[in-house]
Design goal:
mainly alpha
Amino acid sequence: MSLPIVLSEALQHIYQGQPWLDVTFMEHLRELDAAQASRRFDTSHNIWELVNHIIFWHQNVDRKLKGEKPEQEGDLPDFYFPENHGENNWQATLQRLENSITHMAETIRNFPEEKLYSNVANTQHNAYYYIQGILQHAAYHLGQIVLIRKYAESE
């Protein structure tokens, strides 16, 4: 099995599978409603903002790996929190997360293994750096989401 396939599967497992971390995004997000996703503790980001942040960086790195401009007209800003905090909008955000993970995993899966250690155009880093960064980024923010949920449940 090629390294891009292994890395792609690792990302998919963090979303909804059986990752080494033993927790997934979907087990912690699917049961949240819009009000819970909007809840903020002191100056922390809320879960909704963290999910949009993850989507933002999936799009950014996906485009870099494809040789496209990372940020494009019409993209939502990093840590975006919509004015409409309704349930339909939260469900749409979860669908956007699923789409971003699917696209990112597919880009990783199809990335030429022989180019993993070559610099990505217009950057100072190779593709492996960005792909590994996406995995670390996902795990880091999943941990934040788990902690925010636990904190909310303890109050």
